[in-house]
Design a protein that fits this description.
The structure holds 2 protein chains of 2 kinds.
Chain A (H helix, E strand, L loop, with lengths): L3 H8 L1 H39 L3 E4 L13 E2 L2 H6 L4 E16 L2 E10 L15 E2 L8 E5 L9 E4 L2 E9 L10 E5 H9 L3 H13 L11 H9 L4 E2 L1 E6 L5 H12 L2 E4 H12 L1 H31 L2 H9 L4 H34 L8 H28 L8
Chain B lengths: L3 H27 L6 E7 L1 E3 L4 E10 L2 E4 L5 E6 L6 E2 L4 E5 L4 H41 L5 H41 L1 E3 L4 E6 L6 E2 L6 E4 L4 E8 L11 E6 L2 E13 L9 E8 L12 E7 L6 E5 L4 E3 L2 E8 L2 E6 L1 E5 L4 E6 L6 E6 L9 E3 L9
Parallel strand pairs in B: 1-24
Antiparallel strand pairs in B: 1-23, 2-17, 3-12, 3-16, 4-11, 5-7, 5-10, 6-9, 7-8, 9-11, 12-15, 13-14, 13-16, 14-15, 17-22, 18-19, 19-20, 21-22
Helix pairs in contact in B: 2-3
Classes of the chains: A alpha+beta, B alpha+beta.
Chain lengths: ~400, ~375
Amino acid sequence: MISLAGRDIMHAWGKFVFTGVGLGLLIGVTLSMAGIYRGMIDDAKVLLDNSSADLWVVQKDTLGPYAESSSIYQDTWRSIRVMPGVARVSNVTYLTMQVRKGERDVRAMITGITAGGAGTPGWPPYLVAGRQITRGHYEAVVDIASGFRLGDRLQIRRNHYTVVGLTRRMVSSGGEPMVFIPLKDAQEAQFLKDNDAILQQRRRSAANPTFNKPASPGLLDAFIASQNSNVNVNALLVKIKIGHSADDVAASIRRWKRLTVYTRSEMEEILVGKLIATSSKQIGMFLVILSIVSAAIVAFIIYTLTLGKIREIAVLKLIGTRNRTIAAMILQQAIALGVIGFVVGKITATLFMAPIFPKHVLLEPLDSIFGFAAVVLICVLSSIIAIRAALKIDPAEAIG
Amino acid sequence: MIKLPIQSRTLTLLAVIIPLLVLFIYVGLRSGPLAPIAVKTGILESRSITPGLFGIGTVEARYTYKIGPTFAGRVKHLDVDVGDQVKVGQLLGEMDPVDLEQKVRSQKAAFKRAKAALGEAQARQNFVKNQKHRYEQLFASRLTSEEIVTTKRQELQIAEAVLSVSQEELARIAADRDGMIAQLNNLRLIAPVDGVVVIRNAEPGNTIVAGQSVVEIIDPKSLWINAHFDQISALGLTSGLPVHIVLRSRSGQILDGRVLRVELKADAVTEEMLAKVVFDITPQPLPPIGELAEVTVNLQALPATPVIPNAAIRHQDGKVGVWQIIDDELRFTTVNLGVSDLNGLVQVLDGLDVGDQVVIYSEKALTVHSPIHIVENIPGVPQ
């Protein structure tokens, strides 16, 4: 049994393989697009994983701390700590801002973590180099995506921080690398205005006769001091005791402490369903469009390949080859093209495209399997036009 | 030889297809969730660590002297400026006395008048006393009437009373005069100690309320640092411990000092302990009051025990432990941790022995079934 498709491919294999590679690049882009979509969802999930919390306690009626701003007093943790079922509580602050190092600056999410040692909720759960923070001030653990190295000095607002540890895949839902600094510094960073603003504020307060009465000389100083303190945090991360249900503990905090509480699944819903909803839909649309374009291109390629073989097919018909054999040949070629395309696409997406994207591209094996099935299906469907064209060929064209 | 063209074509095809397939399989297995996780391991060793505490504080003066008038007035002149060295007893400035000097003069005149009145009363009393004596002798000789003698005695009593009034009036006016002079002297702002002027709050002509300070003086020898230590990491903070101080303006320079005292009252709002730290040698030039300082307290070195870097500590299901590698297999070993130092080394009290291999760094979070491969450095970490 001679494989007609094989023979034909061998006849002009260079052209065939190059077409496959071209198709492969297109499939690679499509796979990368799917990877970007998965990466966005993964970013949202690692953010939750890394905080290692079971519950998020935030300001009442807000979607904080990631999707909306939330602010609660820093000593609220004490009243949450004594609730039944609560194992650990820690304060946390999040602030996305530019972090400066010399001339360069990087957009990063500053995370303020409560003192207490590795394993405290909010702390980076693992490192790739260096050590965890040991001092209560001016040390930072940063994600390697920020490009900083161990020992670098970063500037956040007016303070300088030494990088003592590096992490990997610790990003915000927007994909910005995280910078972990001690909570007290982060509270200051979140609140601290630049020096000009502080001076102007002081001048305004001094110009206000209510606060600058000649008869009470200490009032202005007291008022200025009260403007320069921040006792708020963005959220509380709660670890619950083993054997307690997260929903029950959340319900009792909601009821008795009158704060909004989110469980892990609710938080995921907020991040995936609300925070990145539009951008993920955008990427999803691109994915659909790319798939349609790929299908169209595969159809064109197969159609052109078939039309290039009109004379040969006519000869086959003339010697009495059955239609089924001709259809099988075209189908096999289409599938072979799809397979080469998929292999090339997978390789380029993994080795060349994923690493150069600035955001995380997650290529899941299951997605690849679905992708492969889709490619084969698209090839089969698009070969139908070519098969119809081939079957219509008049055997007489072999001579004419 | 006829089949050669086909064979060479097949060979070329294979030369393209096989590497592609190999690459594909490599990509499938070496990336994504199936890929082994790069980990960096370390061997548990026994070492002595020196725990330390880290806090920040501000430079403050132990004694600040706020010099100002005791009642409202206007500044007449102020002779010192910020940075001036002053000696104890030195005149720093003066408040405007307004009419106080005139009042003192008036009191002085009144004093003189009272003194004259006293002289008059004295003379009168002397005369009356002599008269009385004389008439008593005459009465003894029965040369005068008893009524006249009685009158003279009464006159002497009156004269003595007038003398007493004059004496007391003189004392009153003298006290009034002294009070005025004391008030006048109180308008002079005098340095209570040797020190440096740090604030000049008012200028000549300014009106000052009672109790408001005109200048502030500190004793430069009494500079200390009001340091804050987070309560959670302040174990072992006691007075007398040696410290290293880094001032924000002199970040390259480490100054030595010691903990003078740990305050009995902690800060309940910020959850910090407060301690006062003094310099062994006061730095010159003087650090400005209010400058930020980093304070590192070195505790006593501890005897050698097994230690691990804090990067190795993981939490699984509420338990503290490390990922141990036994026969190339991962195992989560719960450990009991002791104190840690500022370089990130933590004592292992039990759970691990010296020589055990543990995971320090990993590319991802690990589970028991994670495929791992041990590397020198985690890929992607800038060297």
